[in-house]
Write a sequence for this structure.
């Protein structure tokens, strides 16, 4: 990630981005909580990417070099926390579930600047309490370090609907399915089917944010039918792709 900007303080504020807009690679000395009130947000680092629809937020630890990408019309709520204050005890980016109360707390906290008032302090304290109770979500798509695996993963990123088996993909990149299977586990910490499902879900969230019909999303992401896609989506996110958690 070239041209890395450094910002000592991660400001707490709301920012709106048009579809396709990006915030280039940068880092903060503070921790940051990033929540998309509208649209879908992708945060990318050298270690991979994390995606968050409206019922999720992304924890970005202090010092992490990261970039933002907007999908759909994005309403971005950013909460900065001092590096000395880590209520989650996390040192890597993590996607967190955001329930209705936490969502409203984040929106209220980022609507106005910190005025140092007791009311503001109480709001922040409740927000942190809710944050500590937020379940972590497995929505990380890791980036491979192995050149061989990177070539294979790039093929699937270019076409998430590619349904070839690992053995078939292996013939194209010049490796056996056994070798590739071992690399997926050692390099990415997951199996090939798990990684491909994560890729397809990430791509589905982006397409849905762009108002692509559900049936079309299912086809473009490689599911055999809309119902199969809806089932996987609901088990992962807790709601169907045609609905969205209300504010």
């Amino acid at each position: 990630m070239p041209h890395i900007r450094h910002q000592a303080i991660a400001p707490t504020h709301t920012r709106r981005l048009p579809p396709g807009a990006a915030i280039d690679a940068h880092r903060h000395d503070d921790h940051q909580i990033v929540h998309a009130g509208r649209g879908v947000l992708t945060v990318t680092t050298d270690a991979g990417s994390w995606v968050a629809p409206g019922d999720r937020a992304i924890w970005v630890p202090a010092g992490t070099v990261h970039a933002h990408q907007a999908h759909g019309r994005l309403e971005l709520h950013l909460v900065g926390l001092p590096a000395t204050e880590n209520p989650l005890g996390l040192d890597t980016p993590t996607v967190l579930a955001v329930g209705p109360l936490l969502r409203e707390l984040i929106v209220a906290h980022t609507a106005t600047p910190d005025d140092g008032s007791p009311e503001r302090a109480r709001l922040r304290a409740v927000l942190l309490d809710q944050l500590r109770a937020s379940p972590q979500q497995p929505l990380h798509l890791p980036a491979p370090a192995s050149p061989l695996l990177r070539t294979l993963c790039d093929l699937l990123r270019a076409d998430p609907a590619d349904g070839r088996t690992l053995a078939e993909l292996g013939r194209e990149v010049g490796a056996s399915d056994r070798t590739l299977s071992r690399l997926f586990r050692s390099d990415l910490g997951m199996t090939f089917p798990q990684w491909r499902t994560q890729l397809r879900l990430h791509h589905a969230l982006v397409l849905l944010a762009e108002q692509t019909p559900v049936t079309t999303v299912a086809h473009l992401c490689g599911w055999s039918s809309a119902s199969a896609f809806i089932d996987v989506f609901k088990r992962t996110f807790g709601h169907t792709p045609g609905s969205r958690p209300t504010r």
